[in-house]
Structure formats: C-alpha cells, structure tokens
Amino acid sequence: MGKAEGAAAAAAAAAVVAAAAAVVWRRRSGGWRAEEMARELEERCAAPGMEGLRRIAGEMSAEMAAGLAEDGESKVKMLVTFVDNLPAGSEKGLFYALDLGGTNFRVLRLQLGGKERHIVKQESREVSIPPHLMVGTSAELFGFIASELARFVDSEGGDFRLPEGRQRELGFTFSFPVRQFSIASGILIKWTKGFSIEDGVGEDVVAELTKAMEKQGVDMRVAVLVNDTVGTLAGGRYHDEDVAVAVILGTGTNAAYVEKAHAIPKWNGLYPKSGNMVINMEWGNFWSSDLPITEYDQELDAESLNPGEQIFEKLISGMYLGEIVRRVLLKMAKEAALFGDTVPAKLKTPFILRTPDISAMHHDTTPDLKIVEKKLKENLEITNTSVKTRKLVVKVCDIIAKRAARLAAAGIAGILKKQGRDTRGDGEKRTAVAIDGGLFEHYKEFRECLKSTLEELLGEAASRSVVVKLANDGSGIGAALLAASHSQYNELEE
Ligand code: BGC
C-alpha cells in the first residue's frame, strides 16, 4: 500500500468509527440531545422577549404609516377598501354572501329586519374546495363556486323574501390581497394560503365571478367585494359599536381597521362623509429583523408556493403551525433519534401534521399523554413512544404555538398604537378587537397566550379599555350587511 492509499484507508476507518460512535451516542443520549434541541428552539422563539415584542409592535405601526403614504413603500400593503361606513343595524331585506378564502367556501343568505328585528333568518352551506381547483385555472375555480351558489339559490325557501322585480344581491368575501378600484371591483395581487392559479392574478375577481354566475344562470349582482377581515369588522360592528379592529387567525392571518381618511396620504379620491376609511392591512406580509425566525421557518418558506412572501403569516397562521412542528420533530428524529433508530417515513411528508392535531396534543391532560400517543400513531404511524418523548412533542407544540400567539398580540398592539388606542386609560372609550378564525377559536393555549401577551404589552390601565372577542362567522354576515348598505335599491327607498 502506498502512502496516499494508506492515509485514505486510515481516514475511511476513522469515519466508520466516528459514525458508529455517533449512533451509540445517539442511542444512549438521544433523549437528551432532543431536549437540548428543544431548549435551543425555545430560546430562539422566545428571543424577542417583551421588549422585542414592543419593538415589533412599534415597527408594525411604522410600516402601517409607510404603507398608507404610498403604494410599494411598505411590506404591509394597507389596501384601501372603499368601505367608509360600517353597518348601523338598520339594514333590511334579503342578501346573499359568498365567502372564499381557505380550503372551504361558504354561501349564505340573510333576511335582515332592520333596527328592531336584526337578523330574522339565516341559512348557510359550506363546501370544501377540491384541492386540484386550488392550483388549476381561474375559470374552473369560479365555475365550481358559481355552480354551488346556483344550487343554494335554488333551495331558497319561503321565509326569505325578495320584493317583486328585484335582482338578488351578494357580498363577496374574497380573502386574498386585492387592489380595489371601487367597492365592487378589484384585481387580485397574488394568491396566498396554498392557492396558486396563474391566470387569476391581475384579473378583476368580481368580473370573473359574475361571468361564472351568468354561465350558471344565476341572476345576481355583486354589490360589494370585501376581504374577510373587512367582513369581520362589519359583522363585529353590527353587534358591538366599539369594534374598530378585526383580525383573522385561521388558515391565513390578516387585519383590518378603521383609519381616518386624512391619515391616508395615498388616497386621492374625495374624502368620505364619515371621515373614515377601512384599511385591509394584509399584515401577513409583515417582516422585521426582530422576528424570531428559525432554520425551520427558513426551510418552510423556501419550499413554499410563495417563497419570501407572507413571512409573518408563515410564523403565525393555522396553515403553517403544524408544518413547523413536523419539521422540528423530523430534525429531532434524524439528529437525536427521537423516535428510535429509524426516522418514521410519514414524518417526512410535508403538511401531514395539521394545526388541529398539534392543538389536540398540546391540550392533552391525560396522565400518560394518551392523546399524543394516539395522534402520533394515527397521523405519523409512530408507535411505542415513551412518556418522555411525548412530553417533548408537547413542548415543541407549546413553543411554536406560543411564539405565534405572542407575535399576533404584538401585531394587534401595533394597530392600537397606530390608532392611538394603546395608552387610553380607565374611563376612556372602549375598543373592541373582533377576531375570527379557527386558530383563535379552537386553540385555547394560543388564544390565552395572545390575550395575556396583549395585556402585558398594553399595561394594566390601557388593557382595561381594550376587549378582544371572538367574532364567530363574522365575515360572511358582514359581507351580506355591507351588500345591504350598498344595495342598488337603497336610493329608491330613501
Ligand atoms: C390573505 C388575506 C386574508 C388572510 C386571512 C391571507 O393569506 O392574504 O387577504 O385576509 O389570509 O384569511
């Protein structure tokens, strides 16, 4: 054997020994290495601390001002919605709404009875969107929606009354970033939340829907086009006149709020009579160097349908939390043999762990964490886990969910700051924040962490005048209410 060959053989032998030692080390101390990884993750995720969260709130508020100054000045788009009045409670008549924005869409109809009788009757139907339509063509997606709407209209019973000779009207909740040109038109800026339909971007979504409805023989006018945050704001205001901010924490995340028209330099239309304008922030695209982004988030983003975009949303919303946890567990399985010597095959499948699964594991109160055991088995085919391992899985869910909740709280604090409502003390006007979305509604640990963080950020006195409330199903109702206040027949009735 020559000198070079000898050296190569020695190096190869050393590598084998090192690999074997690594396996032994992993076997002996796998749990501890995994715990160490969890500790590192926790430190990173909690890194901003209260001070960092306050800075994030400040940056959110500054980005809001920049986005209002001029389009393109901020990552937060601050879209003008053309909604300058929120429902007053006097709306009357039959109105439809169509709510599209996640894996399901909903159609609903409301018979509104005015100040005295409010919502007299309401019916809705939820339809799940076949996954291939989320990445197909715009005509296919709208065609499917219009056909379901047609069936729903056909089922309208006698409790709903449309005056003779009138056309049905609809509020269209479309929960993606749209640049609006009027209350009932706007072009799609980009898709988010797993939708990716190339020919939809740049198109007027109301025109697309109208075309599809005509094809299905549905005679209906789209009276308003609103984002789900705007619908939630309108629905929230209908029940509580102090609602001034709406937030969605569901598959995606976003916020809308009432701004003074004179505080919107980029607005070049006439000032509305109310002096106000609702702004759809599109806060999911917010970014700050203070955000506690980890390697898992970077990888998730790089492999997503919209790399580099919606970073705040990817840290916070329901579409991603389960997936972040999966990525952490996968790394622990690979580097610390968390689930034994082989890496469970299913754990390698993107998006196999959903946020409702991590919520169920996170809230497991059984002594041996039986729910965690069951979820790992059912979802990932991982069996024979020790209680120690299950505890670590819960720990990872806790870290990721709480990071999300704290960031969402900082975002809300930023909006209140922009509105000058973050320092109001006792006796001052109350501000209500209406929140909708499954993440907030069903994930208790998330909800409570959000509320307590917001209280801490605002301080005791100011937080007494801010209430955070669940506005279940507000966005569809809100859209129908706005359709009522923008009905083509309103002038006839005045
Ligand atoms: C969209 C927003 C929407 C939010 C909540 C985001 O992905 O960009 O328009 O309001 O999800 O549905």
UniProtKB/TrEMBL annotation:
<comment type="pathway">
    <text>Carbohydrate metabolism; hexose metabolism.</text>
</comment>
<dbReference type="GO" id="GO:0005829">
    <property type="term" value="C:cytosol"/>
</dbReference>
<protein>
    <recommendedName>
        <fullName>Phosphotransferase</fullName>
        <ecNumber>2.7.1.-</ecNumber>
    </recommendedName>
</protein>
<feature type="domain" description="Hexokinase C-terminal">
    <location>
        <begin position="245"/>
        <end position="484"/>
    </location>
</feature>
<dbReference type="GO" id="GO:0005739">
    <property type="term" value="C:mitochondrion"/>
</dbReference>
<dbReference type="GO" id="GO:0005536">
    <property type="term" value="F:D-glucose binding"/>
</dbReference>
<dbReference type="GO" id="GO:0004340">
    <property type="term" value="F:glucokinase activity"/>
</dbReference>
<comment type="pathway">
    <text>Carbohydrate degradation; glycolysis; D-glyceraldehyde 3-phosphate and glycerone phosphate from D-glucose: step 1/4.</text>
</comment>
<keyword id="KW-0547">Nucleotide-binding</keyword>
<comment type="similarity">
    <text>Belongs to the hexokinase family.</text>
</comment>
<dbReference type="GO" id="GO:0005524">
    <property type="term" value="F:ATP binding"/>
</dbReference>
<dbReference type="InterPro" id="IPR001312">
    <property type="entry name" value="Hexokinase"/>
</dbReference>
<dbReference type="Pfam" id="PF00349">
    <property type="entry name" value="Hexokinase_1"/>
</dbReference>
<keyword id="KW-0067">ATP-binding</keyword>
<dbReference type="InterPro" id="IPR022672">
    <property type="entry name" value="Hexokinase_N"/>
</dbReference>
<feature type="domain" description="Hexokinase N-terminal">
    <location>
        <begin position="50"/>
        <end position="238"/>
    </location>
</feature>
<dbReference type="GO" id="GO:0001678">
    <property type="term" value="P:intracellular glucose homeostasis"/>
</dbReference>
<dbReference type="GO" id="GO:0006006">
    <property type="term" value="P:glucose metabolic process"/>
</dbReference>
<dbReference type="GO" id="GO:0006096">
    <property type="term" value="P:glycolytic process"/>
</dbReference>
<keyword id="KW-0324">Glycolysis</keyword>
<dbReference type="InterPro" id="IPR022673">
    <property type="entry name" value="Hexokinase_C"/>
</dbReference>
<dbReference type="GO" id="GO:0009749">
    <property type="term" value="P:response to glucose"/>
</dbReference>
<keyword id="KW-0808">Transferase</keyword>
<dbReference type="Pfam" id="PF03727">
    <property type="entry name" value="Hexokinase_2"/>
</dbReference>
<dbReference type="InterPro" id="IPR043129">
    <property type="entry name" value="ATPase_NBD"/>
</dbReference>
<keyword id="KW-0418">Kinase</keyword>
<dbReference type="GO" id="GO:0008865">
    <property type="term" value="F:fructokinase activity"/>
</dbReference>
